[in-house]
Structures are given as C-alpha cells and as structure tokens.
Amino acid sequence: MIEVNIHPASSWEELTERTTFLYDAARESRLATEKFMLDGRHTGTGGGNHFALGGATPADSPWLRRPDLLRSLLSYWHNHPSLSYLFNGLFIGPTSQAPRIDEARNDSVA
C-alpha cells in the first residue's frame, strides 16, 4: 500500500486537478485505488478519503473564529448517528474497528 498525502487545496478546481494527476500517475505505474475480498467482492481500502476543513492561516479558520460552528457540527453528527453508516461499508456493528457506543456489547460499558 502506498499512501499519498498532499497539502490542502485552496479551491475545488485545484483539488480536482491534483486528484486527477495522482490517479493518472498511479494508473501509469499500474497501481489502483481498489481492493477486492477473497471472494472477489469490491471493498474499501480501509483508509484515506479524509478531508480537512479550515483556513490557510489560523486567523482564517472558521473553527477558531467561530468555535460554535464546530460545536454545532459535532452536535448535529452526534444526534444523527445514522450518518456514520454512509462511510462504513461492511464494517458496521460491534465487530467494527470503531463501534459506536450503542453498537458495542453491553458488558463493555462501565
């Protein structure tokens, strides 16, 4: 596995250009961003697809200028746990890498 980390983009067009370049370079090197299970089913790679929200400088960061925005975002996500299923694929429930507290085994809650 090769992980590629790049610096943040300042626009959607810039991000699209970088991503297209990386995928083209990978394809030319006979690399792919796909993973298959032993039975042939397509599955996620288990990593990547992260994004960061912020500003070019601390003064530009909406999280530092308006900390209530971060609280609002986290509260919304917490109160709508079904959103987490959009990103989990097969790895849902108490056997997943990071089960939610309401998915965990009852005897594990102290």
What shape does the CA trace take? flat
Physical arrangement of strands within the biggest beta sheet: 1-2
Order of helices and strands: HEEHH
Strand content: under 5%
Reported for the largest beta sheet, the result is: 2 strands, antiparallel
Strand segment count = 2
DSSP helix fraction: 25-40%
Number of helices: 3
At a glance:
By secondary structure, the protein is mostly helical. It contains three helices and two strands, in the order H-E-E-H-H. The termini are far apart.
Describe the protein.
With 110 residues, the protein is mainly alpha-helical. It has 3 helices and 2 strands. It has helices spanning 12-28, 62-65, 67-79; strands at 35-36, 42-43. The termini are far apart.
What are the main properties of this structure?
flat, 110 residues, mainly alpha, 3 helices, single chain
Topology diagram in text:
Blueprint: H1 12-28, E1 35-36, E2 42-43, H2 62-65, H3 67-79
Antiparallel strand pairs: 1-2
